Amino acid sequence: MGFANLSRKPTYNEYQLLRGLTAGDTLHYSYIFKEYYNVLCHYAETIIGEPGHAEDIVQDVFERLWQKPYAFEDLRHLKDFLYKATRNAALNFLKGAQHSKERQAKFLHEQEASGTEEDLEIIRMEVFRVIYREINNLPEQCGKIVRMSYIDGLKNEQIAEALSISLQTVKNQKTRGMKLLRMRVSPAVITLFLLFSHHS
After folding, report:
1. What is the CATH number of domain 118-200?
2. Which one, out of 78, 79, 109, 146, has a CA that is 20 to 30 A from the CA of 5?
3. What is residue 117's predicted lDDT score, i.e. its pLDDT?
């Protein structure tokens, strides 16, 4: 589906990236890590509901990638590996945690009930990956407020209280942040982000 084109200025082309990764090049590995770490943590957290353990899961996935580089056919193959490995590791974590079995059953039931396909999940995570990158390029407070609102799903009042700022400041920074994002990514990505985000 050409997800590589969602980002405006890729550092490496697909051939360079996959060749370097297969060869165990640390620069290419670091690039992949920076590109996907945040969004994979977000993905794992949506499954297990625990940020700390989600980070551990994603770090283990990248450790597997580093210790045993795979010969990926294309960039889509690499993305499939990262998302599926994270999903499977998160579900395995729930299997091993007695208190989480109910959450595991709920997650699997929701996926089955909604008819969510893996391709749709990959699209959602790719959209979030692009947005995460651009949010990190926003002014600090602006990016933090956009993340708390659209990704964490907090209300304006909750954000204002958490950051000890006025409600109007939150509203202004959200408006500013979305305006900047619309200037930096395509309308299609913004539309999908708003569709997939927690923001109402």
Report:
1. 1.10.10.10
2. 146
3. 56
